[in-house]
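FIELD: query
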Amino acid sequence: MGTVFTVENTFLDIQNGRPELAVLPLAQHEPHGPHLPVGTDGIIVGALASRIAGRLEVPVFLLPVWPVGTSGPHRGQPGTVSLEPETLWAVVADIAASLEAHEIRKLVVINGHGLPTGPGARPWGNPVVKTAVRQLNYEHPSLTAVWLQPFALAGPALRGVFPAGDIHAGDLETSVLLYLAPELVRGSAPDFLPDQPPSYLEFAPFASLSPTGVWGRPSQASAEKGRLAVEAAVNASVEYINRTLGFLGQVRPAERREQHVDPA
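FIELD: result
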């Protein structure tokens, strides 16, 4: 495995180690029911990013978790800190530009928001992050950036472990926290599955759909299920990164730029 450089290293360590890619974990800062901390997304994505970086075969610069994303559906709820979409987009772009300035031209953005499981799960995550990464590839041909959502990638492996409809502060997130940081889990919370579909979160405040902040079945959580989820997410992410960067390395920068179509 390659060396992992972090904020605990000096600039000389990084200069001499010449990391080939950077890993940027992105989180949200928002309520997760009465039993999980508002920093749940950051705790989870930080642990995943560290494990993923340690499994890659090249030197990696593991960046600190960026803790604040776009939490529009939770706005107004205590503990929520949110950015405007344009601000988050600029944060990702500026970080990529600063890395490129010292010749780190591969960036893996790990989105810690949105944890879909069960049949038909899709990586709904943060659309701002997906769009920002896409634009980075179009506008900076010398840079290769990829976006991933670890638990969505692990969906097939977890299909028999977690039920469908587990969206927020439910079985999955509670299980993962019981595995990673059990001291932060304050008991359990009542299961709650709204009658409305998750797509309503595009239009309505989260609290109007789930007054408790739970969308799932935290009563079914266990540390063992959390371990299985973390291991599956790390394995799937490492495979995806290696495969995707391998393919993109064969695509000439000019070809990537030619594919760009400016949004209307």
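FIELD: remark
The domain at 4-167+230-258 is CATH 3.40.50.10310 (Rossmann fold).
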